[in-house]
Amino acid sequence: MPTIDLISINADSFLLDLKALHTNLDSLPWRKEIPQEIFQRYILPYRVSQEPSEYFRLHYGRKLYERVKDCPDIKTAALSINEWAYEQMKYEPTSGWDQSAEVTIKRGIGRCEEMAILFIKACRAVGIPAREVSTPYWPFTNSNHAWVEVWTKDGWHFLGGAEMTPLDHTWFKDGVCRTAIIKSIVWGEFVPENEIIYSKGEGYTILNLTPNYSDTTGLFILVKDSNGVPVESADVWISVFNYSSLRRVAHKYTDSSGKAHIIAGKCDLFVSCGKDSLWNFEIVRFADTNSTIQLSLTLERATIPDTSFWLKVKEKGTFLRNTTYKPPESSYMHHDLHQAQLIAVQPELLEELPENSLETRFLKNINRSRGNRETILKFWRLYEKDRDFLLSL
After folding, report:
1. Which of 7, 10, 281, 382 lies in disulfide reach of 272, CB 3.0 to 4.6 Å?
2. Dist. CA 382–CA 376, nearest whole Å
3. Which domains does the chain possess?
4. Which of 58, 46, 44 lies closest to 117 in space, CA to CA?
5. Which residues, in sequence order, are bridge partners of residue 280?
6. Does the structure show a pLDDT above 50 at 149?
7. Which residues contact 312 (CB under 8 A, 6 or more apart)?
8. Is the dihedral of CA 255, 183, 274, 215 positive or negative?
């Protein structure tokens, strides 16, 4: 745990949060299918990203258990939990610093990362291994994206957090095949099986999951000084062209032999290096190559020249895991999602409203209220004689 959490988290509440997870796990059939390391990395952690700490399993564990208790398998349960997350929120930009999952429920809105955080925490509360995955920047549009992978017996599958789609079939499926790098941050320092480590830090490991989504190329960079001597600890930056600017998507330091290595997707990259006010760059074209690329850069430039950079991205990607769409294996069928989002907490409200009022501002405000629905509905029922007035507001 980060030191700040050791200081700020209430021990009694934290233990109750763990107990809520333990209680759910005891009653769910897929718990026996989950390897210990998957459990430790992708269920046990109480935090997903940089969101404030909270006791989410303690507060929502039993509600989510009721949602999945009759699900026959982990895939079906994951889709049901994602529908629940969809009912709680919709996409809307928020501040750059992540809000907690409980705040997201109260506000009813969040960015893609906050959609992922809510879905991941809900999955983990009922023993479904889940992790956040993201690309720092697309190389073809002015944006980045974060989504979710859930683990089942046959491996990892991706889907959008709080976005109702089958596993491995999302709106960004084609775009993700054209990006430069895809990463996932995992708690703890460990060596995963069949996955590439991008970097390690104190208490965390960053995985490079790009090969799971698209064809990749190995990029080997040698950095030298003006005398041809390899330079140790030089910065190496990998950038993509993103709406008239270069956006950094990866960073490495050279080793004692002046070398750095990265696995990247097949799009044009702006590769630069620097140390002690000297730098250099080269544009790497590997949209049409299958081989690894050896690149040598000499630290010699002191200023950035006035110039233009032309970088391309392949027009269409091919998703490696499933090139043709297949119906989901799960037997789970979601409900009418528009209705579910509007009346997720109190479905009987439909019966209490006049038939022509389903699109009134009142119902829309109920939708926006999300976590405050219960309070508003209590007020609605308490002042039954004034409903016509309330509907007119």
Report:
1. 281
2. 10
3. 3-212 (3.10.620.30), 216-298 (2.60.40.1120), 337-392 (no CATH)
4. 46
5. 273
6. yes
7. 267, 268, 285, 287
8. positive
CA-based torsion, 370, 374, 378, 384: positive or negative: positive
Q: What is the pLDDT of residue 80?
A: 94
Q: What is the mean pLDDT of the segment spanning 187-195?
A: 86
CB 192 within 8 A of CB 229: no
Instruction: Scan for tokens 């999951």, then name that residue.
Output: 209
SS (H, E, C) the chain: CCHHHHHHCCHHHHHHHHHHHHHHHHCCHHHHHCCHHHHHHHCCCCCCCCCCCCCHHHHHHHHHHHHHCCCCCHHHHHHHHHHHHHHHCEECCCCCCCCCHHHHHHHCEECHHHHHHHHHHHHHHCCCCEEEEEECCCCCCCCCEEEEEEEECCEEEEECCCCCCCCCCCCCCCHHHHCCCCEEEEECCCCCCCCEEEEEECCEEEEECHHHCCCEEEEEEEEECCCCCECCCCEEEEEEECCCCEEEEEEEECCCCCEEEEEEECECEEEEEEECCEEEEEEECCCCCCCCEEEEEECCECCCCCCCCCCCECCCCCCCCCCCCCCCCCCCCCCCHHHHHHCCCCCCHHHHCCHHHCCCHHHHHHHHHHHHHHHHHHHHHHCHHHHHHHHHC
Average pLDDT over residues 170-189: 89
Q: Which residues pair with 135 in a beta bridge?
A: 145
For residues 33-63, b (16+ Cβ closer than 10 Å) or e, as one string?
A: ebeeebbbbbbebbbbeebebbbbbbbbbee
Q: Residue 170 has which token pair?
A: 């999302």
pTM of the predicted structure, to 2 decimals: 0.81
In whole angstroms, what is the distance from residue 360 CA to residue 339 CA? 14
Give pLDDT tens digits for 98-118: 899 999 999 888 999 999 999
How far, in Å, CA of 374 to CA of 162, rounded? 21
Q: Say if strands 145-152 and 130-135 run parallel, antiparallel, or are unpaired.
A: antiparallel
